[in-house]
């Protein structure tokens, strides 16, 4: 997963405003008590950050891949 795909999914799954707030403010324990934005800045792979964010916010598996039914899911963690 590329950074652009991460941001596209954030917008699709959570909505642009709420999604960006989650990325900036939601502290993710599996990522060392960092926010998604901090983890990405520190070089954590976007797919790892995406899974941690979805897990923290209880996003069901089918909703994690946005609006495109043909989008290929990132590899498992």
Notes on the protein architecture:
- With 77 residues, this protein is mainly alpha-helical.
- It is built from four helices and two strands; from the N terminus they run ααββαα.
- The protein has one domain (3-63).
- It starts with a helix and ends in a 21-residue tail after the last helix.
What is the general shape? globular
Rounded to the nearest angstrom, the distance between the terminal CA atoms is 12 Å
| Mean pLDDT across residues | 90
Q: What is the count of DSSP helices, taking H or I runs of 4+ residues?
A: 4
How many separate domains?
Answer: 1
Radius of gyration (CA) equals 11 Å
Question: Structural class, from helix and strand content?
Answer: mainly alpha
Within the largest sheet, what's the order of strands? Answer: 1-2
Tally of strands: 2
Give helix % range. 40-55%
The portion of residues forming beta strands comes to 5-15%
- Write down the secondary-structure element order: HHEEHH
Low-confidence stretches: none
Major beta sheet summary: 2 strands, antiparallel
Protein name: DUF3046 domain-containing protein
InterPro entries: DUF3046 (IPR021408)
Organism: Cellulosimicrobium arenosum
């Amino acid at each position: 997963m590329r950074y652009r795909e991460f941001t596209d999914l954030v917008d699709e799954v959570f909505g642009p405003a709420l999604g960006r707030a989650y990325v900036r403010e939601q502290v993710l324990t599996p990522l060392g008590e960092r926010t998604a934005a901090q983890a990405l800045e520190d070089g954590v792979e976007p797919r790892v950050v995406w899974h941690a964010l979805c897990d923290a916010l209880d996003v069901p598996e089918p909703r994690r891949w946005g609006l495109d039914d043909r989008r290929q899911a990132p590899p498992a963690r």
